[in-house]
Amino acid sequence: MKRKHYLDNLRWLAILLLFPFHAAQIWNEGENGGFYIWSQKNTVLFLFATAVYPWYMTLLFVIAGISCKYSLEKRSIRQFLTERTKKILVPFLFGLFTLVPVMTYIAEIFFNGYTGSYARQWVMFFTKETDLIGYRGGFTPAHLWFLLYLLIISFGALFLILQQKKHFPNLKADGLSYFAIVFMALPEWACLSILNISGKSIGQFMALFLYGYYIFTEENNLYKIKRFRFISLALCILSGSLYIYLYCIKRFENLWWIDLLYIFYGWMGILTLLGIGQAKLDFHNRISDYLSRASFPVYILHMPILVVTGFYVLKLPIGVAGQFLLIVGISVIITFFTYEIIKKIPFLRALFGMKN
């Protein structure tokens, strides 16, 4: 099978987007901050983060579902489980014990005036009462929630897929119309409340993973997504503009129809990106191949580096725009520099889920 390079390119583009997205959290609308460090409210950055959030991580779960289908075509079940464990579980545990406490240490200093040692804070990380978010210290999976969810969903989806193959071996989803695919947002919305932990729903992400596995590995469906990509783009812009206005300006929250609009906007963003990706991003070169290989360890590394960078940059009197750009730029440079070191050391490669 010809490799679908646009999936690799969409994946690393989504990972790179995390740098400005997480930097924007430093100026979000939460009172006294909804991040490990906080400066002040900034409407432009709040609007940016709100516009990005509904589709960039959901896209990664769809791509993970697509990748699962192609992986199972080449690997046995045992090989698949072994690969998932090495690539996801090992980096998750390593990051949880070594990288995440760095961010909560910064949060303890920034918000709580903590003056103790890092070692003492490391113990507090596992023992302090926590909301699992960790923006004021305490235990949290932080950005590694994605790895934890992906591991749970991969194993859960594998069970469902094996049951489908056993009981419904001829089940396929290759005859869907474009508008049937559009309305797949409704089942996703129905799953939003299933195992929703701190606003991150295992049910929703499981649905997206299975959509990737069953819907977006069928060439007929992919053709329709590509053909109607501009309709997807128009619906994405319209629904996104309405959602951002109602959520950010009018401050409508915790309403079922706002949640539905949020899901629909995110879903149309996914369809738009998959359609445009097929048309414009199905290529590879030295740069795209490098970024594809780097994307997973960059995801693991970027957040603690960004938080520490932001902690010091916020002390500089250069204005919001200058601070934001400097945080993003320095974080990108340090993250990729660290990646270059890690990839040369075999045991660190294994801890970051890279092949030796």
Which helices and strands occur, and which strands form pairs?
Blueprint lengths: L4 H20 L18 H32 L2 H22 L1 H13 L5 H10 L17 H23 L10 H5 L2 H6 L5 E2 L2 E2 H13 L4 H9 L1 H21 L6 H25 L5 H28 L5 H24 L3 H6 L5
Antiparallel strand pairs: 1-2
Helix pairs in contact: 1-2, 1-12, 1-13, 1-14, 2-9, 2-11, 2-12, 3-6, 4-5, 4-13, 6-9, 10-12, 11-12, 13-14
Q: Describe it for me?
A:
The protein has helices spanning 5-24, 43-74, 77-98, 100-112, 118-127, 145-167, 178-182, 185-190, 202-214, 219-227, 229-249, 256-280, 286-313, 319-342, 346-351; strands at 196-197, 200-201. With 356 residues, it is mainly alpha-helical. The protein has a two-stranded antiparallel ribbon with strand order 1-2. Helix 3 packs antiparallel against helix 6, helix 4 (100-112) packs across helix 5 and helix 6 (145-167) crosses helix 9 (202-214). The chain is globular and about 60 Å long.
